[in-house]
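Section 5.1 Outputs to date
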Amino acid sequence: MWKKFLKKSGWTDIIVSLIFIIFGIMLISRPEAIVSVISILLGAIFIVMGVLKIIDYYSSGKQDNYLIAVATVMILIGIIVMFCADIILSVFRILIAIWIIYSGIMNLQTAIVWKDYKSRLWLITLLLAIVTIIVGVYILVNTGAILQTIGVAILIYGLVDIIESFIFIKKVDNYLD
């Protein structure tokens, strides 16, 4: 049972890493377009949600006042997001960095487990985890990093995470039989 769960978890990590790789390649090749598209999509989502809240306000018999306040805030957030791509980029950069650092810390934990099982691959997992954390910290602290650099870092993270996931899936067979 655990073996199936752990293998499924490893394959899920690979899929997420592939998404990061694709996103990294897109950031490298067309960074400004990606930021613009993300800003427009997020802004439109907030505006649509706000409009739906306004419709809900007028269609409900009670006319809850909080719905109008929520709708107004959502529409304002949508407009700000659409026209402030730099803010979106900063928030997105921070979220990506936090995710990468978290992943690196989890991989450090995996390296410790592999060391306890006397696996020879624990050192490779440890080094890859350290590289992952360094990449995450670089993205977090370097506010002036050009989008292509962030794309390269995301691409490297995805590749490192895929390697670690394959190691994990391979080792699950060896240690849980």
